[in-house]
Amino acid sequence: MPVSLFIKQLDDALAENGLSFVSTIIDIAITFALARLIVAIVARAARSIVARRARDLEEMKARRLTTAVTLMTSVVKYAAYFIAIAIAVGELGYAGAMNSMLAAAGIGSLAVGIGAQSVIKDVAAGLMLLFEDQLAVGDYVTAAGVTGTVEAVTLRTTTVRGYGGELSVIPNGSISVLTNYSRTDSLAIVEFPVAYEADGARALLLMREEAEAYYAELGDVAVEKPEVVGAVQLTGGEMVLRVVQRVKPLEHWAVQRELTRRIAARFVREGIPLPRTRVQMANKEGGEA
């Protein structure tokens, strides 16, 4: 027996017994179940596409593909549930009332009246972010005061995971200033304090030697040769020396840590005096020891 004929006979049987509302509930439940199934199928297919294609693409193109697939999944989700809601309204017999209300009030004024203005703002901002290619999944950004890695971009929101693992969901309309650290070269800035009486010229020479030796090991990570800026600060009996190394995006943290370690070890070996920390202790009479 065809499924449609079975459903029709079931509806007729329920109507004869005054249980037509049960048929309506079943139809609505099936509609939302189908909408959820469609969204799940599309999401799974999208993940499969990314897994197959991303391996053969450059990193930036792979990020854009992931972002586009995430957006497509978001659009399908909104469309599927919107259609499901429209069908549910029709099943409940409110379609005529809804059409009359929309005709009388206008779609725009109704949307504003029910508080959808912020949603429209978020969607419009999300379209601009994606159309102008301002960010992609995997980029390290600061958006709406939140810094971290972009995990998902939808029409309404951008999901960012912070350095400590915290997950922030940001409405796209609230992103007034966006800083993307993944699109330009980074600067590894190492500032190292030495004692004021240290030989500054010799200390800078040692910093240059260590920076250039490390530069030779970095390979493609380094963009250009290191620059020894010199003394940038004199405070509290210490002199702060600075060296800068331009590297590929987001590589600066690792370079800063390793270069700082190397310079510290070299200064110790060469006898460059480091700043002394003065500790003040109160004696029993309240004076300083």
Question: Features of this protein?
Answer:
289 residues; alpha+beta; Helix Hairpins; Alpha-Beta Plaits; 2 domains; 5-stranded antiparallel beta sheet; 3-stranded antiparallel beta sheet; 8 strands; 19% strand
What does this molecule look like?
By secondary structure, this protein is of the alpha+beta class. The chain has two domains: 3-180, Helix Hairpins; 186-270, Alpha-Beta Plaits (2-Layer Sandwich). Helices cover 53% and strands 19% of the residues. It has eight helices and eight strands. It has helices at residues 3-16, 20-53, 59-91, 95-105, 107-113, 117-131, 200-218, 252-270; strands at residues 140-143, 146-153, 157-161, 167-171, 178-180, 186-195, 227-235, 238-247. The strands form two sheets. It has a five-stranded antiparallel sheet. Strands 6-8-7 form a three-stranded antiparallel sheet, covered by helices on one side. A hairpin with a 5-residue loop joins strand 3 and strand 4 (167-171). It is elongated and about 100 Å long. The protein starts with a helix and ends in a 19-residue tail after the last helix. Residues 284-289 have low confidence and may be disordered.
Quick overview of this protein structure:
This protein is α+β, with helices and mostly antiparallel strands. It folds into two domains: 3-180, Helix Hairpins (Orthogonal Bundle), CATH 1.10.287.1260; 186-270, Alpha-Beta Plaits (2-Layer Sandwich). It has helices at residues 3-16, 20-53, 59-91, 95-105, 107-113, 117-131, 200-218, 252-270; strands at 140-143, 146-153, 157-161, 167-171, 178-180, 186-195, 227-235, 238-247.
